[in-house]
Structures are given as structure tokens and as C-alpha cells.
Specification:
The chain is α+β, with helices and mostly antiparallel strands. It folds into 2 domains: 126 residues, Diaminopimelate Epimerase, Chain A, domain 1 (Roll); 122 residues, Diaminopimelate Epimerase, Chain A, domain 1. 19% of the residues lie in helices and 41% in strands. It is built from 6 helices and 18 strands. It has an 18-stranded mixed beta sheet that branches. A hairpin with a 5-residue loop joins strand 15 and strand 16. The chain starts with a strand and ends with a strand.
């Protein structure tokens, strides 16, 4: 039976910007090997596979090369598809069971809000090879549950960065987040490099903001922030801090519908 696939650009209202995710609503269980093969074939930053289980949806996320523990943009895309296609009423919150626990999506004033764990970063000494990998000095170095988080001296330094991706991959952890304060409408900017996941640069990374939000919220003294991920595609995010949790907000737009034949 053909498997429907919906492609969604997340953390944007403009098609072909933000971060693309494929969403597959499954009729029944599928093998992990099949899901990984589909994610590799579709070649989006992440593919989400959803299956209804009682009062919630089981979701698994795969990059083209591996399964991941947390993916914000593909979860936001999944909520968008479930509401848009009438699978779930637009006024109903959606519970997702994941490898990172239960995540709740809700709609509010045109935003999709994801209830995610806050993951404040921990200050550490720079790992060996960091300076060579980035090619620019770090103001401060941290690690998060998944990544290295590096504050750079300016927004210009973040936007103009051209890291040595082979060297980044040797640093261990999932990837490297670089960030600084921002000008204009945004509180901070960031970029995320994860060659080990098959993502040289991830366009917009929801899970990275589980650490970026608490970091900049404490540093700027703000419980609510607007963020811009300054990849070539770019995307905007809203972060509302709630103690050990946070609400991560964004928009989404459908760009493609199709079917997997095999």
C-alpha cells in the first residue's frame, strides 16, 4: 500500500526557507531499517514517522544517516500536518511520545508552540581542536545534552563563519552551535553544524534552542525571546521560558505531497 508523505518547511511562513521535514503518518508499525532507508531516500534534514497510540502519537525522527533523540522542526511539522489535514482538531493539543519523553504541541495566535525540556548549557574548557575547527576565537564554551555551544564575539562573526566541517566532526557530540546577540527584532542569532548526522549545516534547529533559550534568557534577563537561525535558508523561532520546560514557537508551510510506492 502506498505511504503518504508530506513535506513541510518549519520555522517559516515562506516556502523553501526554514527547515524542511518529511512527515509520514503510518497505518501500522514499520521496521527501523525501512524508516532509515526512507529518510535516506527523501534526504531532508529529518523525517518524522508518526503512529497513533491511544491518546497520543508515537514519533521517531531520522536524519539521512541516523535516528535522533530530539528534533524540534520535524515535530512542529508533524503537528502542522495533523491539524492541516483534519486528523486532529485545530483547537486540540497533540501529545507526542518520543525518545525524549512526552512533548505537547498546541496552537496559539497563529503560532505552533512545542512544550520541550529546557536544557541549560554547562560551561566547560574548550575541547581540543575547537579553535582550528571554527577558525575564529570563542567568547565562551559550553556543552549541552547533545552539542557544543559556542558564543562568538558578534552577530557578524556568526553569520560569516565557515568552519572546517571535518574538524567539527572530530570534536565529538552531536554537533556545534555558534551564537551571539543580535540586532534589530531578534534577541540572538545562531547556526548549527552537525556533519556527524549527515547535516553539514542544519537550516533551523529546534532542539538547539532548548539550550540557547535558557542561556540567552539568563544572560539578557528575558523570559521570552525571539531568535533567528542564520543559515542560508534562515528561520525564526520564539522561546518562552517555563522553568524546567520551555515553549518553542514557530510557523510552518506545506510544500509537497506524495506517496512512497514500495
Amino acid at each position: 500500500m502506498p505511504q503518504p508523505v508530506v513535506v513541510v518547511d518549519a520555522f517559516t511562513e515562506t516556502p523553501f526557507t526554514g527547515n524542511s521535514a518529511a512527515v509520514c503518518i503510518l497505518a501500522g508499525p514499520r521496521e527501523e531499517r525501512w524508516m532509515q532507508a526512507v529518510a535516506r531516500e527523501l534526504n531532508h534534514a529529518n523525517t518524522a514517522f508518526l503512529q497513533r497510540e491511544n491518546d497520543h502519537w508515537r514519533v521517531r525522527w531520522f536524519t539521512p544517516v541516523t535516528e535522533v533523540d530530539l528534533c524540534g522542526h520535524a515535530t512542529l511539522a508533524s503537528a502542522h500536518v495533523l491539524w492541516q489535514d483534519g486528523v486532529v482538531g485545530r483547537d486540540e493539543p497533540i501529545a507526542f511520545e518520543t525518545r525524549s519523553g512526552r512533548l505537547i504541541a498546541s496552537a496559539q495566535d497563529g503560532w505552533i508552540l512545542l512544550d520541550l525540556p529546557a536544557m541549560p548549557p554547562v560551561a566547560v574548557a574548550p575541547p581540543p581542536g575547537l579553535a582550528a575547527a571554527l577558525g575564529t576565537p570563542a567568547v565562551a564554551t559550553f556543552h549541552t545534552r547533545f552539542d557544543w555551544l559556542i558564543e562568538l564575539e558578534s552577530e557578524a562573526a556568526v553569520r560569516s563563519l565557515h568552519p572546517d566541517l571535518a574538524a567539527v566532526q572530530q570534536l565529538g557530540r552531536r554537533g556545534v552551535i555558534v551564537t551571539s546577540t543580535a540586532s534589530g527584532d531578534y534577541d540572538f542569532v545562531s547556526r548549527f553544524f552537525a556533519p556527524a548526522l549527515g547535516l553539514p549545516e542544519d537550516p533551523v534547529t529546534g532542539s538547539a534552542h532548548c539550550a540557547l533559550g535558557p542561556y540567552w534568557g539568563a544572560k539578557l534577563g528575558k523570559p521570552e525571546l525571539l531568535a533567528w537561525q542564520a543559515s542560508p535558508r534562515g528561520g525564526s523561532l520564539r522561546v518562552i521560558l517555563k522553568g524546567e520546560r520551555l515553549l518553542l514557537g514557530g510557523h510552518a508551510v506545506t510544500t509537497l505531497r506524495g506517496e512512497l510506492v514500495p
